[in-house]
Amino acid sequence: MKHAATGAIAHQPLALVNARLVDPVRETEERGGVLVIDGTIRDFGPQVAAAALPPHAHIIDCGGDVVAPGLIDMCAFVGEPGAEHRETIATATAAAAAGGVTTILARPDTNPPIDEPAVVDFLLRRARDNGLVRVLPVAALTRGLHGEEIAEIGLLKEAGAVAFSDGPQSLRNTRVMRRIMAYARDFDALIMHFAQDCDLTTDGVMNEGELAARLGLPGVPREAEVIMLDRDIRLVALTRARYHATLISTTLSLDAIRAAKAAGLPITCGTSINHLALNENDIGDYRTFLKLTPPLRREEERRALVEALAEGLIDVIVSDHNPQDVETKRLPFAEAEPGAIGLETMLSAGLRLVHAGEITLPRLLAAMSSRPAEILGLPQGKMEIGAPADLIRFDPDEPYVLDPATLHSRCKNTPFDEARMQGRVKLTMVAGELVWREE
Asked: Could you tell me which InterPro entries the record lists for this protein (predicted)?
């Protein structure tokens, strides 16, 4: 691995040539190169070739690999402050850089939670000093994540929070949620909510159905997700607040989102790469690394999610990066903590869908880069002159077997342990600086 290059690299003209350029905004591909000067894209296309560049330019021949905007992950746990035994900004951003993720949205469920401007400032400073990629704070909807008192959304946004969420827990109180939406609307703040009826999921540990019954495990019904989502959609219609359903996993939720979008409501949604690439059968013999929230669903649900992604109904793919240490995962399935790491494997797992012919490469990259940037109002995620040079180079076809020991995350709870994968990131650039380069 190569860490960030010296300042000279950022100001020296740098060109990635002989590449397969993928534009996720227009969802197009062409052969050519990208010229980067002073951290921004100055030119791209067939005209950017080694023979046409000045002699002092730093030229990287990509050998036909894909070059595209860096990925933007809207749901990741980075550990700081308070959970450095699970992850740190340094380890999370190293994993992100190795996986082609150039921007991480950090979940607010830290200790203390991100519910005060001072904590937002702390996270931004730590990311500046210790991070290889961009780390943007998601602040809490409620103080202490308790679901009762509204956080100071205006002050938190002014301090640098890009969105608002209570992390992996749902806000039960409808009256409080309505007040939050009305408050957030006045600041044009984005609400990111994890929709799940807590009263229906208290004891559940996997998808409710025949497999759960055979394994002797309590199930989580699909309805738990859509009940909360339906409530939120009605509140969006009432308040017109901007709303993003962080993780959806069922056809019931897809139907609700489709109706909401058809009605013109300001609603977007995401799903995790795990729910697109895996199903409940992968749990096999009680594999706790596949215990997730929401749980993995049936294969029919997985296919429906992929189809919704292909048609554009699902806006965003996230890693749902949630590191858990050995003590919380090497337990009986019902007792293990839910969660899996995913920053470093999100792209490779997504490429499974491309290789299977279920989705095009530009559409996959749009859901991982340009669409998140559009929802968040970020300048990244574009193959465009003047855009920040957050770029990745990867070979979508290179095969490998995933060895968890080689992953950069502090924890190794990957659901793709020893899986056959395709797609290697060879270079990651943030604002024109090389933060990862395969040796």
From this structure: DHOase, DHOase/Allantoinase_Hydrolase, DHOase_cat, Metal-dep_hydrolase_composite, Metal_Hydrolase
